[in-house]
Amino acid sequence: MNRIIFLISVMLLSFCPLASADFLDEINALTTRVRVLAGGDTGLSDSARYHELVEITYEYTMLSYPEFATYLGDPRGQDRWSDQSEEITRQREQDEKDLLAALENINREALTANERVSYDLLLDSQKRDVEGQQFPAELMPLNQMGGVQQNIAQMMTISQPKDAADYANMIARLEKVPQVVDQTIAWMRKGLQAGVTPPAITLRDVPQQIRNQLVDEPEESPMLGAFKQFSANVDSLQQKSLKQQAMKAFSDKVAPAFEKLLAFVENEYIPAARSSIAMRDLPNGEAWYSYNVKQRTTTQLTPEQIHKIGLAEVKRIRNEMDVIIKASGFKGTFEEFLKFLRTDPQFYHTSKEDLLREYRDISKRADPELMKLFGKLPRTPYGVIPIPSYAEKSQTTAYYQRGSVEAGRPGNFFANTYALDTRPRWEMEALTLHEAVPGHHLQLAIQDELEDVPWFRRIGSYTAFIEGWGLYSESLGVEMGFYTDPYSKFGQLTYEMWRAIRLVVDTGMHQFGWSRQKAIDYFMKNAGKQEHDVVVEIDRYIVWPGQALAYKIGELKIKELRAWATDELGENFDIRAFHDEVLGRGAVPLSMLEANLKAWVRDQQTHD
What is the pTM (predicted TM-score) of this model? Predict the structure, then answer.
């Protein structure tokens, strides 16, 4: 399962920067211009206003969210973190409303066909963002899946300093960590007062995540990894001085801030966090969950409809599993076969190095098979690396972190090497195809390399499309020569079952009042996953309501469209052209994907 490090909206992102007169002046000039464009006749054409708004959204985002600028390779604001104060957050919400008004003031019909596609995406995303303002997500800035206890180290890790000035910026960020921690705690306190917190049960590993950042020797901190091996552009005297400054910043600023956070989380936050697990139990929670479902699936499906789809898919996949068990020659019940898969030593590595080596081997076997299924491949490379030790216990089995041509950063498939007896080999092929190629790396690298599209099209994050593609990619393993033994094939079905189960348990917990244990038991009964993985997954669904629904919903839509296109085009159907069309416009809502593919089929039929 993928966890992309920034779940990006294609519009104004979450926060503005820590106070800087220059930056604030530039931001104020941008927002003033947006209000002018929203207010009436400017003497500009609709197309000109649209393009100006696109440029403004980029400038606003880079100035307002410096971490995202790091991520994209933009040099601005690299000595700061985002400001998470209440004042700036409320101002950001008003800015989003002003931008929506400016977009709605554009006559769509006056735009070119290509402009309309991007305009529709921009407008739809902005409407969703403004609609979401009624739900106080800012009151829950931290959980076991992410937050300041992980994000600071992650950001310092992906930074790629090239000269002494870049290292100085990183030191400046270390020195400002206390402000980030203080603002995080302030929101969490407000959350306690409002009764808006993650469930206490899901926070149990967060104190250890914080402790993992409190190393005895500063130079052993993952935050200071860049100061172990300097760029060749930094001379030896500068290196010594910069390293000393970084270690001092860690000791004097970072460590005390994290100690403060640890004390707050252990002594104040977890003891007072809510005991219920359902999003519907939060203020306005039922509407909040419905919003999340729409946002993540990009459909109008209700939680009730999705629950029914999940039950039907679980039944279908279970029948396919029974066929595989019979073909394997195993004598015993379904439950006994699951126990065999979970416990037999032949299915487990005994060293982290061997686990990573097999993931890399699978990746290299997948690479040449792509030519059979895709006409266009990206130039961005990818690696297979372990999930950082400070986060591995509470993290999922794997996730992908997208690369960036602009930033000069490869994509990375992060594999969990914690608790090797919970990482069965029979799941590794399906997982690799999902996270690396033809899954997330292929799709996101192609998107990053798109030309002649607005900036937000290259980084757009529609979960149903991205995760639907990842799950669909697992099924392509059959055409790529994988799943040749029954255990690996059962592993692929287990992963498909896993995503079907999500439809049932996510809606079960958040809409229908299922207990956490009922969700765990349902998962364990229907899939071969280890209990540790199952518990981590269920707790993930609890703190990310609705996110896990996107995988199966997106996959079903892609498979439906492939079957339809195959039937419509018959012997003229070209799988490589179909896949290129799916990926060639970047991530889009499922309704737009369907419209794009139906137009493509009509075009194929016309030319035939």
Answer: 0.92
